[in-house]
Amino acid sequence: GQQLNQSPQSMFIQEGEDVSMNCTSSSIFNTWLWYKQDPGEGPVLLIALYKAGELTSNGRLTAQFGITRKDSFLNISASIPSDVGIYFCAGHDPGGGGADGLTFGKGTHLIIQP
Amino acid sequence: NAGVTQTPKFQVLKTGQSMTLQCAQDMNHEYMSWYRQDPGMGLRLIHYSVGAGITDQGEVPNGYNVSRSTTEDFPLRLLSAAPSQTSVYFCASSYGHPSYNEQFFGPGTRLTVL
Predict the structure, then answer these.
(1) What is the pLDDT of residue A51?
(2) Residues of A numbered 32-71 whose beta carbons fall under 8 angstroms of chain B's beta carbons: which are they?
(3) What is the DSSP track for chain A?
């Protein structure tokens, strides 16, 4: 099946810093999604990307669908305390065979130091 | 709207016991999924359903059964619990396939198998 490599695994940053994380896949995806999970809750969709090269923003968050269709990145500008959580990338490969669902990365833990 | 609800929030089982994790949504979504989340593993798809009466296996279906008798409900059954099934379980729903329709997650069920 598909494999998603998400990095970094964790980030310790100061409030106000910019954050960048990325995902790469072993196969071509037709959709890239970015989710955030707060402690003790389920993930919430942040940004959805549907076309190679697409760049989409949601407030201080910006995500891009890589041109090769095998990668995506998420940037957070001017981090604030409520950005703390786990960020997941997810993708869909309709020709991948097996279960027709999303494949999730292992997550990036974002920790903001005061 | 309550969104996606899951019960119970916490559960402790002994090896070999069976139980059902409940999931319900009130958004009239056709597509529902069960995921498990383990430390450092991200979310992995167990089973999913594209509508009432239709279910299919995900990435890690062994040891779990599902049924979808109504649009609203999608219970997950553990037939004979094993310590390897200790995890956090999330139910999710979306109007259509989650690659193109926002997927809403429940708050999760934290299961420990002794």
Answers:
(1) 94
(2) 33, 40-45, 48, 50
(3) ---EEEE-SEEEEETT--EEEEEEESS--SEEEEEEE-TTS--EEEEEE-STT-EEEETTEEEEE-TTSSEEEEEE-S--GGG-EEEEEEEE-TTS-S--S-EE---EEEEEE-
